[in-house]
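Async update (no meeting this week)

Hi team, since we skipped the sync, here's where things stand on the single-chain job. The sequence we agreed to prioritize is pasted below, unchanged from the tracker. I ran it this morning and attached the output directly underneath so nobody has to dig for it. Comments welcome in thread, and please keep replies under the output.
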Amino acid sequence: MLMAGMILLPVTARAARLGSGAEQAGLDALVRKWANEQGFRGLVALGRKGHATASSAQGFANVEMRLPFDLDVPMAIASISKRITAVAVMRLVERGQLALDTPIARYLPAYRKDIGAQVTLRHLLSNSSGIPNQFGAVVRARPELFGKDMPAGEAVSLFASGDLVFAPGTRFDYALTNWILVLAILETVSGARFPDLVRNLVTAPLRLGATRLEQLGDSMSYRTLDPPTVWASPTADYLAAGGGFCGTGRDLMRFAHRVYGTSFLTADSRHALTTIEVASDHYALGGRVREVTIAGKAVRCAWDTGNRAGYRSVLGHRLDGKGTVVVLNNTGYSQKTMDEVAEAALRLQAG
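Output:
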């Protein structure tokens, strides 16, 4: 996060503006206010039916190149990847290749039978499996493993095979090991590599041309801006399902509308994605569903956030179909404040 009193580089909002209407003017004013008062640097965009209707930015996606933010600059979207992965799972559920409530032992025959008989895909996708996150402890003991690629099965054995710490479905634990297992299941059942599977099931049919694994182009994330200090965080292949994707504001707009507002998924799949499984954390499958007060009314929204290195992201979509907000940042901005920016922007949309 930016430190108090830090001298900030000059900023710009020019690259991201879409129009001159009231919504655009309101968004420009909002982004300027957050930049001046809270040090916000990044992109905020509003959209309807998969298309951006207003967009405003402050700062640079790459400070050294003075590359401004815009709707087509790829950024790491971190945990928003979980929702993309959940959509891939639902595509295979629709084909009869997976079932949310079948014990995962059916899909991973080499996995621990005692745990595999109790945990389901629904538990994994809602971060309520009870399988402990052994990643930190293992990497501390064997630092050569950090960032090292390995087959999904090996990663499952190393990081996701500990004794249950609570009964599946009874608590929330935002553990990356859930998503190592999801990736392993997807690859085992489909016979395809995870990047190919997601491309074929999700990103290609949705025309998300910039949504892919770890191809950020020129964008950077920063620990500090004065001087610019790049904040790198490599992600191993086996972590891709939980946080490995990059994407653009434009792609995120399209993703939200097509997933929640069209027949791309069946009604049953859309219902599953937006049904809260863990009430304490408003968590559904691959992301949260929460209420945002707009014009005095509580509006249900699919609400996905990402946090990796200096990259921060929010994708909020009104489930009544009346609007979408995207917020992207690359300076380690507070996630709580990112949510506040997104909510304030969403309230600018009429209707």
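Quick observations from my side:
Residues 14-81+203-346 form a domain with the Beta-lactamase fold (CATH 3.40.710.10).
Residues 1-15 have pLDDT under 50 and may be disordered.
Reply here if anything looks off.
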